[in-house]
Fold this protein.
Amino acid sequence: MRLQGKRIATFVAEGVEDLEYYVPLMRLQEEGATVVGAGLDLKSVRGKNGLVITPDTTIESLKADELFALIVPGGWAPDKLRRHPVATNLVRKMNESGKPLGIICHGGLVAISAGIVHGHRATGSLGIKDDLVNAGATWVDQPAFRDRNQVWGRIVADIPDFCRELVAMLVEYAERES
């Protein structure tokens, strides 16, 4: 229960990659974190693989200073979320505050639109490699890694590596706070 009492949000929108949403959520709950799914509204959405997810809260209601960390899962949802300043502004504020960000697969699209990838190492689905490079990131073809306050994961098959790296970083941040 190394993350007991830590509030972590994870973005959810139509077409989110179900596994990239649920597996990190459950892994962080195992560590005692309170994890909330945050959508553009509170309407249920269907994940890329058909699972129905109902957000716990809206992205608009979240405040960077009240969150310990934020996760941006992939799928088709990031391409929708990146068009909403409420989502990109939260990602930008979290990054500016040095708070942990977990970004996997197509989640990098939100990070690009938030303007936080320039000068960072980044990964994701091969489909967004050019987008990341054109936004000033250095592409790294690894399952998961950290770059400053950001944890990057490549694809669904790399979720175990992503979760290991994410939990390790979050525990380090939690220990610094205590």
In short: The longest strand covers residues 34-39. The CA atoms of residues 21 and 141 lie 22 Å apart.
